Amino acid sequence: MSIVTENPQIQETRGKEELQNMFRAEQLPAMPHSALIVLQLDNDLSKVNINDLVRPIEADLGLTTQVLKFLNSAFFGFQNAISSIKQGIALAGIRTVKNFVLWKAVFSLIPKTADSFFDVKLLWQDSLRRALFARKLLVLLGRGDEDLTFAGALLQDMAIPLLLKKRPQPTSGLIQELKRRPNYRLSDLEQEMFGWTHADAAEIICQSWKIPKDLSSFMANHTQIEPFMDEPTRNPEQLSVSLSALLPSVVNTHWFEEEKLRHYLNVLFPTKPNILENLFEQVDKEFDQYAVVLQISRPKITLIDQFQVKKMR
């Protein structure tokens, strides 16, 4: 496949214009009305009438069922069953419920692509792993919003299936090119070929769907790491999301970014030499708890097994 060789600045300008046209609001599937109302509410429950959050959820029977299933999942471990949305919000918190509504809304809008070179089900497996990893990493960093970090990592690659639907031939060609050049990051190859990345596309999509800025910025910047390593405590949420993007994919046996991730973790946690293996074990243990609620299938091989296989080679 030929690679574009025009002036990088011209290519980037042209590429950004192409993205803006491709993802104009009227060309994207509409965010569910109930989700839009929920997302516009303040995250601080003291500033919100709880009924303002309860009403749009209860007006959607399917969403009500999903939220209650989430609140009664093993992840929370509440002693008594949650029988009402209002009760669940009071116990779990407004941000947690808002983020769940957002996940389910986005999942419903993403094309269910599954063919010989791309399967969105496998993308969501990677995404859930990265979300769990990012949240665990944030806890180790000692500060930041866990729910926001989880959501940012979970949705960081949401633009990929939308790009595949909007421009199937170039995007499928990109994925095939990535298989031929396994030592390239997807975002680097996108920038080289198109002048933009799926992170740029995610930022435009977030604007169209009115996803809160503090969350959309995580998706827009998840391919960048060095700016956030300079001051890890300044934006630990973004750093955690960006580092999660270095995890191995379920579809690739070749993980060329392992040493890079190990380096960053060693800089952040010099006294924890086995931190990567420990994080992988924790992510594997928690995966099923969320996978059931989000209707994500289990990967054929766990992260720790994937790591051990690579280690034995």
In brief, what are we looking at here?
This protein has two domains: 226 residues, Hypothetical protein af1432 (Orthogonal Bundle), CATH 1.10.3210; 79 residues, no CATH class.
Protein model, in words:
The chain is an all-alpha fold. The protein folds into two domains: 8-30 and 110-312, Orthogonal Bundle (Hypothetical protein af1432), CATH 1.10.3210; 31-109, no CATH class. Helices cover 64% and strands 0% of the residues. It has helices spanning 8-22, 33-39, 50-58, 61-71, 85-92, 94-109, 120-141, 146-154, 159-166, 168-180, 186-194, 198-209, 213-220, 226-229, 236-244, 258-268, 275-294, 303-312. Helix 5 crosses helix 6, helix 7 packs antiparallel against helix 8 (146-154) and helix 9 (159-166) crosses helix 10. The mean pLDDT is 86.
Question: Topology, please?
Answer:
Elements: H1 8-22, H2 33-39, H3 50-58, H4 61-71, H5 85-92, H6 94-109, H7 120-141, H8 146-154, H9 159-166, H10 168-180, H11 186-194, H12 198-209, H13 213-220, H14 226-229, H15 236-244, H16 258-268, H17 275-294, H18 303-312
Helix pairs in contact: 2-3, 3-5, 4-6, 5-6, 6-8, 7-8, 7-15, 7-17, 8-13, 8-15, 9-10, 10-11, 12-13
User: So how many helices?
Assistant: 18
* Through-space gap between termini: 31 Å
Q: What number of domains?
A: 2
Largest sheet: none
Rg (C-alpha, Å): 20 Å
Question: Proportion of β residues?
Answer: under 5%
The CATH C-level class name of the largest domain: Mainly Alpha
Shape: globular
Please describe the structure with a list of short key phrases separated by commas or semicolons.
313 residues, mainly alpha, Hypothetical protein af1432, 2 domains, 18 helices
